[in-house]
């Protein structure tokens, strides 16, 4: 009697949701990956000069948070931004799985490692960047639910 109702179809659709699968279906796309990479590289490392914990970039080799005199690119006195040619930023890759997101990059710069020079916390999102990601995720989830869960 109730199987043909909209409420029955909605309940059936809801009970069949696999949260991990939906997470991957909704967030495993270019828009999300591009946002994560942009927030991590351009916003955090290059504009705000901070790692994923919000700490000012600190070069452990020079014991400074800024470029010294004689910097080959003329950045004397400016805060570190972990950007020279863009090669490091180009190594950022995002993996979205069932319930997780992993940010990977290659910190090797010749013989040196940016992780040793600064910190392994170069990879990851600050609270502000996570807020931006959550806003996008909410929009994508709502659209997915409207399209796939709520019966017509």
* Domain tally: 1
Strand element count: 4
Strand content: 5-15%
Number of helices: 6
Uncertain spans, ≥5 residues at pLDDT below 50?
none
| Structural class determined from secondary elements | mainly alpha
Taken from the alpha-carbon principal axes, the silhouette is: elongated
Rounded mean pLDDT is 92
Q: From N to C, what is the helix and strand string?
A: HHHHEEEEHH
Describe this structure in words.
Helices cover 45% and strands 9% of the residues. The strands form two sheets. It has a two-stranded antiparallel sheet. The longest helix is centred in the last third of the chain and has 22 residues, at 127-148. It is elongated, with a radius of gyration of 21 Å. It has six helices and four strands; from the N terminus they run H-H-H-H-E-E-E-E-H-H. The model has no long low-confidence stretch (mean pLDDT 92). Strand 1 (93-97) and strand 2 (100-104) form a beta hairpin. It has 152 residues and is mainly α. The protein starts with 5 loop residues before the first helix and ends with a helix. It has one domain (19-148).
């Amino acid at each position: 009697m109730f199987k043909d109702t909209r409420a029955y179809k909605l309940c059936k659709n809801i009970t069949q949701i696999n949260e991990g699968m939906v997470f991957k279906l909704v967030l495993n796309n270019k828009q999300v990956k591009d946002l994560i990479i942009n927030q991590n590289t351009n916003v955090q490392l290059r504009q705000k000069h901070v790692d994923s914990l919000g700490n000012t970039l600190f070069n452990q080799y020079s014991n400074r948070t800024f470029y010294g005199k004689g910097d080959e690119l003329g950045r004397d006195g400016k805060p570190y931004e972990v950007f020279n040619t863009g090669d490091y930023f180009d190594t950022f890759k995002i993996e979205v799985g069932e319930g997780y997101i992993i940010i990977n990059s290659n910190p090797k710069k010749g013989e040196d490692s940016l992780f040793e020079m600064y910190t392994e916390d170069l990879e990851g999102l600050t609270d502000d960047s996570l807020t931006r990601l959550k806003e996008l995720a909410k929009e994508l989830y709502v659209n997915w639910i409207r399209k796939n869960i709520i019966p017509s």
